[in-house]
Design brief:
The chain has 142 residues and is mostly beta strands. It has one helix and eleven strands, in the order H-E-E-E-E-E-E-E-E-E-E-E. The strands form two sheets. It has a six-stranded antiparallel sheet, with no helix packed on it. It has a five-stranded antiparallel sheet with strand order 4-3-2-1-11, with no helix packed on it.
Length: 142
């Protein structure tokens, strides 16, 4: 049992973080009405984070190659989700056919976060009603 534990610990130490060598070139944060978003831009990749009311940063869009569409697999709460980080890594576009959230169901939802223009746009069906979102956000200086 001790040997097995030692092997597991050694494996974890040697594996490290797969993205630890990634150098973040730029971080942009913007505060919108309900959430705060942050993008970490590397040379060819970007990761987008979302902060909730409890001030916890969670990954909103996984580390994705810039100017290339990334398809995420289906989960129990949502259908296939596509992510595209374009415009040189400053614009995130997500699309979900069906997503069950804690406060409702979203169908054919498209959300665009533009970190250059500091805007959050979206459209789709929320709780059975169509919605359009066009929100101006504020730049957060770090």
């Amino acid at each position: 049992m001790k040997k097995l534990f030692g092997i597991v610990v050694l494996g974890l130490l040697l594996s490290g973080n797969a993205y630890s060598n990634a150098k973040v070139l730029e971080t942009i944060s913007m505060k919108c009405k309900y959430f705060t978003y942050k993008i970490d831009r590397e040379k060819n990749y970007a990761t987008v984070y979302k902060k909730n009311k409890a001030s916890y940063w969670g990954i909103y869009a996984e580390r994705s190659k810039i100017d290339e569409k990334t398809i995420l697999p289906e989960t129990t709460s949502r259908s296939e989700k596509s992510i595209e980080i374009g415009k040189g890594g400053y614009r995130l576009e997500t699309y979900v056919k069906h997503s069950e959230l804690t406060n409702g169901i979203c169908k054919q939802c498209k959300i665009i976060l533009d970190f250059k223009k500091l805007r959050r746009k979206g459209k789709g069906n929320w709780k059975g009603k169509p919605y359009n979102l066009n929100e101006k956000c504020k730049l957060i200086k770090s």
